[in-house]
Design goal:
Blueprint lengths: L6 E6 L2 E6 L10 H15 L6 E5 L4 E3 L4 H4 L4 H6 L2 H9 L5 E5 L2 E3 L1 H8 L2 E5 L3 E3 L16 H6 L1 H10 L2 E3 H7 L4 E3 L4 H14 L2 H14 L4 H16 L2 H11 L10
Parallel strand pairs: 2-3, 3-5, 4-6, 5-7, 6-8, 7-10
Antiparallel strand pairs: 1-2, 8-9
Helix pairs in contact: 1-4, 10-11
The protein binds hexanoyl-coenzyme A.
Length: about 260
């Protein structure tokens, strides 16, 4: 099991919370931290009792990006085989919804980690950016792809080519952030949002996540056909019978994940 202190794990009923915890390095995403985070997320994803995952950092920094000190001596050949490359697709493969609670800096890989999550709650003091260009590199974990799909080519180009940071309000207007809250409240709000997702029927939630994720990768006609198949799968669940009956009988549904 990877070093536990680097990412603290908490559980609040059906919501699991991963708190990045490398304050001395502004939560820079070292290999060990990414290994621990990926390990935790995969453990939780396999646990049917966990319905939503929140990823948070500290109050002043979510994560300052990949670990620059660890990257300095890395050769081209080593970067092609470095294990950190595999953690990103593994996190993206998590079927349980993930919400980022961003307070302070989410830079480079930190911004990419937030963008990999399904929703983002940001404190007013949050700052998003892809400063890799100032180091002589470019983003390598979605900062040119997920970011561009969310905010559009012109705006993404500016961030990627200049390294300029976006404050929370601008990120919200650009569509990166779901909710902006007062400093110190992002984790609480993210958990609140996670609790709403956690109350929804779990199979339909996973299908919904899968369908929305596919929208970025599929032409419209194929995407609609894929959505239709997933919708039909949802129609095959016991939970949808319960959900519809509960609506008609004017009572709260009791979802069982079947
Ligand atoms: C390693 C880092 C770090 C990082 C900060 N530190 N960011 N160490 N990797 N990404 C370390 C500093 O070296 C310093 O260590 C300590 O944390 C405190 O940092 P300060 O700069 O003194 O803190 P502060 O003034 O609060 O400024 C915070 C900051 C700044 C704005 C976040 O640290 C910063 O700009 N960091 C780098 C951001 C960045 O360029 N990220 C992109 C990384 S490349 P000492 O030893 O001096 O105490 C990337 C590629 C992704 O992410 C590719 C994915 C595959």
């Amino acid at each position: 099991m990877p070093e536990e202190d680097l990412v603290l794990a908490e559980r609040d009923g059906p919501v699991a919370i991963a708190r990045l915890n490398r304050p001395d390095a502004r939560n820079a995403l070292s290999r060990d931290l990414m290994e621990r985070l990926t390990w935790l997320v995969e453990e939780w994803d396999a646990d049917p009792g966990i319905r939503c995952i929140v990823i948070a950092g500290g109050d002043e920094y979510f994560a300052a990006g990949a670990d620059i000190k660890g990257m300095l001596e890395r050769s081209f050949q080593e970067s092609m085989t470095h294990p950190t490359a595999s953690y990103w697709p593994r996190l993206w493969g998590c079927k349980t919804p993930m919400i980022a609670a961003v307070s302070g800096y989410a830079l480079g890989g930190g911004c990419e980690l937030a963008l990999l999550c399904d929703m983002i709650v940001a404190s007013e003091n949050a700052e998003f950016g892809q400063p890799e260009i100032t180091l002589g590199i470019i983003p390598g974990a979605g900062g040119t792809q997920r970011l561009t799909r969310v905010i559009g080519k012109q705006r993404a180009m500016e961030l990627v080519l200049t390294g300029r940071r976006m404050r929370a309000a601008e990120a919200h207007a650009a569509g990166i952030v779901n909710h902006v809250v007062k400093p110190g409240e992002s984790l609480e709000k993210a958990i609140e949002l996670a609790e709403v997702v956690a109350r929804r029927p779990p199979i339909a939630v996973r299908l919904g996540k899968q369908a929305v994720q596919a929208a970025d990768e599929t032409p419209l006609t194929a995407g609609l056909a894929h959505e239709r198949r997933l919708y039909e799968l949802a129609m095959a669940t016991e939970d949808r019978v319960e959900g519809m009956k509960a609506f008609i009988e004017k009572r709260r549904p009791q979802f069982r994940g079947r």
